[in-house]
Amino acid sequence: MTLAAAEPKAKTARADPAASSTAISGDRSAHTPMMQQYLRLLTTGASAAIAERYDTALPLLEQAVALCPAPRALYVLSQVHDALGRPLDALASLDRSLALRNDPRTLLRRGDLLRRLGRNAEAGAAFTQVVALEPRNSDAWACLAGVLTADAARTGTRDDIDAAVAAHRTARACGADPVLADYALAALGASAAPDAAPRRYVEGLFDSYANVFDAHLRNGLEYRTPEALVAALIDRRGRSPSDIVDLGCGTGLCGPLLRPIALRLTGVDLSARMLDVARGRGCYDQLEHAELVEHLQRNPAGYDIAIAADVLVYIGDLQPLFAAAHGAIRANGWLAVSIEGHIGEGFALRASRRYTHSTDYVHGVAAAVGFEIEGTVSTTIRREADTPVRGTVVLLRRLPTSARLRNADV
């Protein structure tokens, strides 16, 4: 999984029950037959959206808006478009709402949509408008800090880094999640880096991006890590059918590539919404919403192959994951991973809130837990700000216990 630095979404894509009820109560000023019909459509559509029956909600809300394009009804309609993976339609509904009333909540949602579409400058402008209207709005400060962090990651200038640090500290002071704020501050060099990204950072980030993830990666970032990783694995190992676990499977981009060599294909991810998209591909025999190390520990000797495409960028210390993978992979089985390159020793947390690792560090951790290095392949894993980002595919084979003991004695 890969994304440019971004703040987890301020609000989920699901219809907001509070917004729905407010929309209805706020539009009771007229009692004409047309308004009564509008209220019935809005009430029924909002109820369907709250129940996540978005295909049912959409035509009802569109009819309601056609009768009366009230700001709050347009807001609910935008939520449904977003949940259905139609961010541009969602944005258009928000713009119509804002043309009628300059509402901070609508501005915040507009900024979030723009951010997920990669339109960071426009997103930053929207978040700036919100904090001007509501100076203590922690969600808006956190989102603005996320945009500024992306700028700092791109430019690396002291001024941009300082601006991002100040925004994160303001967000924290206003009540933003301290775990997420502290992680961002660590990525900017303002505090010590943790061993891995916080679970709720990863989960929230990818839940928010699930509906636009594939288009953003393929079109915006030219993401090709799954192809590079699976091709390198097949080149070294061959195509013999195997039990495979796709760690951090996301929306399942590796699924179609792995299916032809899989007896049984399992996908594991922290993001439930990403798993919903992966399920729609029809490639996986099982999908599990779980933390990776916990899943591996629950499945001793359960797999012939474990693959992790663009997952280690959210983990600094690889020892727990590699040790758990060693226990879950059968003798002579394979672990295939991708890393972003790091000049120097060990690993580092970058302003992008992604970890980079040196190849020597990866090899050292792998050997210590019982893997043999079978090969490395340097590749371009994506583009960022029109610049190729280099990475490395690392192929590891699990040594039988006897071989591991012999090597330890040498």
- Annotation, overall tally of beta strands: 9
Helix content: 40-55%
Uncertain stretches of 5 or more adjacent residues = 1-6, 10-28
Q: Count the helices. How many?
A: 19
Strand residues, percent:
15-25%
How are the strands of the largest sheet arranged?
Answer: 3-2-1-4-5-9-8
C-alpha end-to-end distance: 38 Å
* Sheet having the most strands: 7 strands, mixed
Element-by-element helix/strand order: HHHHHHHHHHHHHEHEHEHEHEEEHEEH
**How confident overall, as mean pLDDT?**
88
Radius of gyration: 23 Å
Report the structural category.
alpha/beta
Shape call = globular
Please give a structural write-up:
With 410 residues, the protein is an alpha/beta fold. The chain has helices at 17-26, 33-50, 54-67, 71-83, 87-100, 104-116, 120-133, 138-155, 158-173, 178-187, 199-209, 213-220, 225-237, 255-258, 272-281, 292-297, 319-328, 359-369, 401-409; strands at residues 242-247, 262-269, 286-289, 303-308, 329-340, 347-349, 355-357, 371-384, 387-398. The chain contains 19 helices and 9 strands. Strand 1, helix 14 and strand 2 (262-269) form a beta-alpha-beta unit.
